[in-house]
Design a protein that fits this description.
2 domains; 6-stranded mixed sheet; 10 strands; elongated; 8 helices; two-stranded parallel sheet; about 210 residues
């Protein structure tokens, strides 16, 4: 938080809308001027940068149900009509690329994804990827701080790396090996620079991780 205070024009990204509201009110009470766009959730940041919109839960459930009825994957025949099962699939599909899924699940995700894309909607991992590709020096502040996160997925990590190409990025995470995606190599000390590997980074990036 001190980095956000000390660097005017920075962008603070938080995990939840509740945290955004709480931090905004706290800073206002302290007399620290903050524009609404300077504090947002990661979901709100995606809304600004991603080429597709987020999938409404009822619509995603509808499309998954239609695909299950169409493809009728053998091992899901007994549970395909259960809302809880479809919700579990929706949560999985939002985060996991089809290449990481078993064949029958990948087929369901691909079909449901086509239906979403027709409406200008995408799975969350797709939106993270498109946001990373859309970042530029013009649409990212010089300093970005991510605070309040406990872990970052592979797609979220790739977005952070993309930010680091154009901005100085600070991420506050618990100091455990599991806090960053397995695609990341990181040395945790009081203040360190994270060295990212196995990610398609065409330019040097600066991402600092603090405990």
């Amino acid at each position: 938080m001190e980095r956000f205070r000390s660097q005017p024009g920075s962008l603070l990204i938080l995990p939840t809308a509740t945290m955004v509201e709480h931090i905004g009110h706290s800073l206002a009470r302290e007399g620290f001027p903050v524009r609404p766009r300077d504090i947002c959730t990661l979901a709100q940041f995606l809304d600004r940068c991603a080429s597709t919109a987020a999938a409404p839960a009822p619509l995603l459930d509808l499309f998954i149900g239609q695909v299950l009825e169409k493809l009728r994957p053998q091992r899901f025949l007994d549970v395909a009509e259960f809302p809880g099962f479809r919700r579990a699939l929706a949560e999985l599909f939002e985060q996991a690329p089809s290449a990481t899924l078993p064949g029958d699940l990948a087929d369901v995700q691909t079909e449901a994804g086509r239906s979403l894309n027709v409406h200008g909607i995408g799975f969350r991992y797709q939106r993270l990827r498109s946001a990373a590709e859309a970042l530029s020096a013009e649409n990212v502040p010089k300093n970005v701080i991510l605070d309040g996160f406990f872990t970052l997925s592979a797609a979220e990590t790739a977005l952070v790396v993309a930010m680091g190409v154009h901005s100085a990025v600070t991420v506050t995470l618990p100091a455990t090996p599991e806090t960053l995606s397995s695609n990341v190599i990181c040395w945790f000390e009081p203040t360190v620079t994270a060295v990212f590997s196995a990610l398609p980074v065409s330019k040097p990036c600066l991402v600092t991780v603090i405990e």
